[in-house]
Design goal:
The complex is a heterodimer of chains A (266) and B (248). Chain A is mostly helical. Helices cover 79% and strands 0% of the residues of chain A. Chain A folds into 2 domains: 63 residues, no CATH class; 198 residues, no CATH class. Chain A contains 11 helices and no strands. Classes of the chains: A mainly alpha (266), B alpha/beta (248).
């Protein structure tokens, strides 16, 4: 199978990408205008993303032919660790990489395994890798939201948390209102996307499958399955993240870790 | 029922607390008496709230140790310590729900059954009528919220009560009732340690006084002696709100 396209297509790709840089410039201009200090992050993310996706496109043909469960697991694990590493760069707190690795891996693998065992999705690279990738990416985003929200809300609710601790409550209980809001913040955007499915959004997986020749109804079914998998694994990943990260937010003496809270920007 | 050790109910031994290289408390060594009401007085930023948080173990000293009933507080299970040494913060920080939910927060942690009469008794101690029990805390005024916060700590049946400017948002009548309750509690052998900015309240309420300035304990005295020894001008200087209020 040939992977590299001919020169005409390469020229077209370069042309289209070059013109699309206008959107990146617009994004940076908006960020500067609103002083949100994300310009460097936009440039870095898109450059990195472009390189990664080009490499992925070149090896995708090979990966899609995989049926060896061991190799599939290795590819998915690599994705999980890379996702955890990405979060770690945004949140330089102690043990974030370890905690995110556990949360993303357990959250996504648990649901992907169930889907494979129950034969909801076939054990083939062309299904497991793109669907697994979507699940892992969304678990990464959702656990990232939970982490960010958890830290900023704990900081804002310091008085309430200390009031509960001062009465003899456990750290876990003292932040239960905060964790509830963090979960909601992570789950609501994806749930909203499901609610407008087919009317406002025609999601990528379904479109890709239809373009690839899959029956549109089967493609639609896979799209619903993927959203269910994303939400469930994202929620599991978020709970695991909170379970482990709470230990970082508090000291062994059930006191708020004030040094860690001070590190947070929010 | 836990009795307070007369020798060392609350003792601080060379306590320092610093955060981000900034010294908040330095070299505080003091024995706080088992009986009566001890007032902590000092200008803003002198370390009064920090001192209360250290005793409740919401934070730990950088150097030194704190003893409760003669025992180093780090050897006492932290939840048990916090039940016995209740803290009422300067702002009420009520939990979402009703007044009843808040009053039962502590007893629920300890799985203690509270009768309706006991809840009414707590409400009456904090000058609130029984009608308040099922009200949502969002509908209460600042003063009422402060009283619920006090009641919530009382429901835990503490042996020592730490209060951080408890009457700052109360009207004069509520303040009087509040002070009466504090005196009643002190008579019931509950040790009261109260941070206050008010000279008049200090005069009315306290038996002993600790003066803090720039994180240091500059004077410990009994209130009667203090108010008899110094003239009014000198006394007022101790209660100045600025950081150069007290005298060394």
């Amino acid at each position: 199978m040939t992977i590299l396209p001919d020169i005409e297509i390469i020229t077209e790709i370069i042309q289209r990408l070059s013109i699309s840089i206008i959107f990146l410039i617009l994004l940076i201009a908006l960020a500067r205008w609103q002083k949100i200090e994300l310009e460097k992050m936009f440039i870095w993310s898109f450059t990195r993303g472009l390189v990664q996706i080009v490499i992925m496109a070149l090896i995708l043909v090979f990966i899609f032919t995989l049926t060896d469960i061991f190799l599939l697991v290795v590819v998915l694990l690599f994705m999980c660790f890379f996702a955890a590493y990405t979060i770690k760069q945004r949140f330089p707190y102690p043990r974030v990489f370890t905690i995110e690795s556990i949360a993303i891996t357990l959250g996504s693998f648990s649901i992907i395994s169930i889907a494979v065992i129950l034969e909801i999705i076939p054990l083939k690279g062309e299904y497991i890798i793109p669907m697994g990738g979507m699940v892992i990416a969304n678990v990464m985003v959702m656990t990232g939201i939970v982490l960010e929200r958890l830290i900023s809300d704990v900081k804002k609710s310091q008085g309430y948390i200390e009031a509960a601790l001062a009465l003899g409550d456990s750290p876990w209980n003292s932040v239960k209102n905060v964790t509830k809001e963090s979960y909601r913040a992570a789950l609501i955007p994806t749930t909203n996307r499901v609610a407008v499915l087919g009317i406002v959004t025609i999601p990528g997986l379904m479109s890709g499958m239809i373009i690839g020749g899959t029956n549109p109804l089967l493609a639609a079914a896979y799209q619903i399955i993927i959203f269910l998998m994303i939400l469930t694994s994202g929620f599991i990943g978020s709970i695991i993240l909170v379970f482990f990260f709470i230990k970082e937010l508090f000291t062994a003496e059930d006191q708020l870790n004030l040094l860690l809270l001070q590190k947070s920007r929010s | 029922m836990l009795e307070l050790d007369k020798e060392c109910p609350i003792c601080l031994e060379n306590v320092h607390y610093s955060f981000n290289i900034k010294n908040i408390l330095s070299e505080v060594s003091v024995k706080i008496e088992a009986e009566g009401i001890t007032g902590i007085v000092g200008p803003s930023g002198s370390g009064k709230t920090t001192l209360l948080k250290l005793i409740n173990r919401l934070i730990s000293p950088t150097i030194g140790r704190i003893l409760f009933n003669g025992e180093d507080i780090t050897t006492i299970p932290v939840k048990e310590l916090r039940k016995n040494i209740g803290l009422v913060q300067q702002r009420p920080f009520l939990f979402p729900g009703t007044v009843k939910d808040n009053l039962l927060y502590g007893p629920n942690i300890w799985r203690i059954n509270f009768s309706l009469e006991e809840l009414y008794s707590i409400l009456s101690r904090v000058a609130l009528s029984p009608d308040f029990l099922d009200l949502n805390v969002e509908n209460l005024s600042g003063g009422e919220q402060q009283r619920v916060s006090f009641g919530r700590t009382l429901a835990n049946n503490p042996k020592i009560l730490l209060l951080d400017e408890p009457t700052s948002s109360l009207d004069i009548i509520s303040e009087e009732i509040f002070e009466t309750t504090l005196r009643e509690l002190a008579r019931e052998q509950i040790k009261i340690i109260v941070v206050t900015h008010s000279l008049e309240q200090t005069k009315r309420l306290t038996d002993q006084l600790l003066f803090l300035k720039d994180g240091r304990l500059i004077e410990k005295t009994d209130s009667k002696t203090f108010f008899e020894t110094y003239d009014e001008n000198k006394i007022r200087k101790f209660f100045k709100p600025t950081s150069n209020g007290g005298e060394n």
